[in-house]
Write a structure and sequence with these properties.
By secondary structure, this protein is an alpha/beta fold. The chain is 36% helix and 20% strand. The protein is built from 15 helices and 18 strands. Strands 4-5-9-10-11-13-14-18 form an eight-stranded mixed β-sheet. It has a five-stranded mixed β-sheet with strand order 2-1-3-8-6. Strands 15-17-16 form a three-stranded antiparallel β-sheet. The chain is globular, with a radius of gyration of 20 Å. It binds iron/sulfur cluster.
C-alpha cells in the first residue's frame, strides 16, 4: 500500500529496540525521524485542517503501559457477540475509511502509535493458554489498527504467527484490508493463524475505503494464504444499504466463492453500518462528498444511527441464504440485537463464550 507517512517519532526508551531499528531501516529515508522523551504530546491532535487525518501520518514508536490482551470493546450483553479477544499492538491505521469508528474513538489521540514492547504480550498470552481450562480463544490484532497495513515496516506478523503456531488452544486472527501477505507466506502457521478480510463491493471500496487494496486483490491474497496453510475468514461489515446493495453484496459473495471454496472459509461475519451521532457528524465533515455515507439511517435503541431494521434483516437474510447454499460453515452477526439475530437465523444468539469457542476451534 501507499503509506503516506510524514514523520517518525521514537521515544528514547524504544530507541535501541529491534523494532525501532527495523522501522528506521525500512521507511523512506526522506521521512524525518525525531527522538523524544515522551511521545504522548505527538499523539494528540494538532490544530489545523483534519487533525485526525494528520495523526495517521505521524508514526510514534512508544511503549504500552497496561495489558495488551483484553475483551473486545464492542462486546455487550445487548448484542449477538462472537466472544473475540483483542490484542492492541498499535493504535490508528494508515488507511482512511469513511465509516471507521477510530475517527471518534481516537479523536483525542490520533497519532499512529506502535508499541515497541509488543513482546510483553507473549507472557500474557501464555498465561491465558495455561489457565484456559480446556477452552479455546480467538485473539485478534485488528481492532484499533489494521493487522497487516504496516507489517512491511515492522515484520511483527512473523513473530506472532510463530508464537501462535506453538499453542494449540489459541488462534490468532489478523484482520486486514490489504494484500500485504509476503511476510506470512514465509512462515508455517500450523493452522493456528486465521487471516480475515473486510470485504465490500467495488462501489463502496471506491467511495469509502481510501488506500486499501481492491476487493479483488483482497480475495486473491486470501486464496494464496489458504493454499499456504492459513485459515481464512471474511467480514462483510459494515454493509452499506445503498440502492444497489441488494444486487452488489450477493455478487461480491459470488466473486468470493468463485475464487475461494466456500467450505474452506472459516466464517463470514455480517454487520450493518452503524454510527454514533458523534461519529456520523465527523464522517459527514471529513467525507462530505462520499455518497455512501448520506443514507437515511434511524437512531436505534443503542444510540447509534442504523439502517432500518427491516432493511437490515432483508439484506442479512439474502446473504445468509447465499452463504448457506454455498456451504460456508459459520455465519454470524456483529453488534446486532438478539431480535435481529432471531429474524435472520430463526434462533436466539448463542452466549458469547459458546460462539467464541466455536470460532476458535479447529475445523472438523
Ligand atoms: S482499514 Fe479499518 S482501521 Fe483502517 S481506516 Fe479502514 S476501517 Fe479504520
Amino acid at each position: 500500500m501507499k503509506f503516506e507517512l510524514e514523520a517518525l517519532v521514537i521515544e528514547h526508551s524504544c530507541r535501541d529496540s529491534a523494532l525501532a531499528k527495523r522501522i528506521v531501516e525500512r521507511i523512506d529515508p526522506r521521512i524525518p525521524v525525531g527522538y523524544v522523551e515522551d511521545g504522548r504530546a505527538f499523539a494528540q491532535p494538532i490544530a489545523g485542517q483534519d487533525p485526525f487525518g494528520a495523526g495517521k501520518r505521524r508514526m510514534i514508536l512508544t511503549r504500552k503501559h497496561g495489558s495488551f490482551v483484553t475483551g473486545c470493546p464492542a462486546a455487550s450483553a445487548k448484542f449477538a457477540c462472537c466472544g473475540y479477544l483483542i490484542m492492541n499492538l498499535a493504535s490508528n491505521c494508515p488507511m482512511d475509511c469513511s465509516y471507521c469508528f477510530l475517527q471518534e474513538y481516537l479523536a483525542d489521540n490520533p497519532g499512529f502509535k506502535i508499541f515497541a514492547n509488543y513482546c510483553d504480550a507473549f507472557p500474557e498470552l501464555d498465561k491465558l493458554s495455561r489457565t484456559a481450562g480446556g477452552r479455546n480463544f480467538r485473539i485478534g490484532t485488528g481492532e484499533l489498527a489494521d493487522s497487516l497495513a504496516f507489517d512491511n515496516f515492522t515484520g511483527i506478523s512473523a513473530e506472532l504467527v510463530d508464537f501462535f503456531a506453538q499453542r494449540d488452544n489459541l488462534l490468532l486472527e489478523l484482520k486486514t484490508k490489504t494484500d500485504e501477505i509476503e511476510n506470512l507466506l514465509r512462515i508455517d502457521s500450523r493452522g493456528r493463524t486465521l487471516v480475515s478480510w473486510t470485504l465490500s463491493p467495488e462501489a463502496v471500496f471506491r467511495s469509502s475505503e481510501r488506500l486499501t487494496a481492491s476487493p479483488a486483490r483482497r480475495i486473491a491474497a486470501a486464496r494464496r494464504l489458504l493454499a499456504a496453510g492459513y485459515r481464512v475468514g471474511f467480514h462483510l461489515d459494515p454493509i452499506v444499504a445503498y440502492p444497489a446493495a441488494g444486487r452488489d453484496y450477493p455478487a461480491l459473495l459470488d466473486e468470493l466463492f468463485d475464487n475461494v471454496p466456500a467450505d474452506r472459509i472459516a466464517f463470514i461475519s455480517l454487520g450493518g453500518l452503524r454510527m454514533t451521532p458523534a461519529l456520523r457528524r465527523i464522517v459527514r465533515e471529513r467525507f462530505s462528498a462520499d455518497t455512501m455515507m448520506v443514507g437515511e439511517e434511524v437512531l436505534a435503541p443503542d444510540g447509534r444511527f442504523r439502517t432500518f431494521a427491516a432493511m437490515r434483516v432483508a439484506l442479512y437474510s439474502k446473504l445468509h441464504e447465499r452463504t448457506r447454499r454455498a456451504g460456508v460453515p459459520q455465519v454470524y452477526l456483529c453488534m446486532e440485537p438478539a431480535s435481529v439475530h432471531e429474524r435472520v437465523f430463526g434462533v436466539r444468539p448463542p452466549p458469547p463464550g459458546a460462539m467464541g469457542e466455536k470460532l476458535a476451534q479447529e475445523p472438523a
